[in-house]
């Protein structure tokens, strides 16, 4: 009598369906009698008989974070044009509250990032949550100050 070694892999024979009644999976090949599911090419995975499927009844969440923080992005050339139009003043600090108060930004924004596109020729005092390297370099080159808030 031979014993089966448990460490070696045992090859289980593949069941060949629809190969005669003697195989145990002959005739209908385990699909039952008639009906849509007995045919080939059937795809009715989430069909609920005409009822609104579960995946459509539930709200969409996916990869959209529920508590996403809206960040306003402003280029320094935009700040330059706002100062030239006398909407912003050079002597006051430019920050999120000030920009919302002057109706430059929507009140739904919670943070602000200063970007470095364009040129600037006025000394500015800015308080922001984030800034790009180029924006910081351009502002500090003119003797301005940009302070980054901590969390």
* Rg measurement, Å: 34 Å
Strand content: 5-15%
Average of per-residue pLDDT values: 88
- One letter per element, helices H and strands E, the order comes to HEHHEEEHE
| Coarse morphology | elongated
Q: And the CATH topology of the domain at 71-148?
A: Ribosomal Protein L15, Chain: K, domain 2
Biggest sheet statistics: 3 strands, parallel
Helical fraction: 10-25%
Number of helices: 4
Q: What structural category do the secondary elements indicate?
A: alpha/beta
Distance between the termini: 74 Å
Spatial order of strands in the largest sheet: 1-2-4
Beta strands, count: 5
Spans of 5+ residues with little confidence (pLDDT < 50)?
Answer: none
Can you name the CATH architecture of the domain at 71-148?
Answer: Ribosomal Protein L15, Chain: K, domain 2
What top-tier CATH class of the domain at 71-148 fits best?
Answer: Alpha Beta
Mind sketching the topology for me?
Layout: H1 54-57, E1 71-75, H2 76-84, H3 96-101, E2 111-115, E3 125-128, E4 130-131, H4 133-141, E5 145-148
Parallel strand pairs: 1-2, 2-4, 3-5
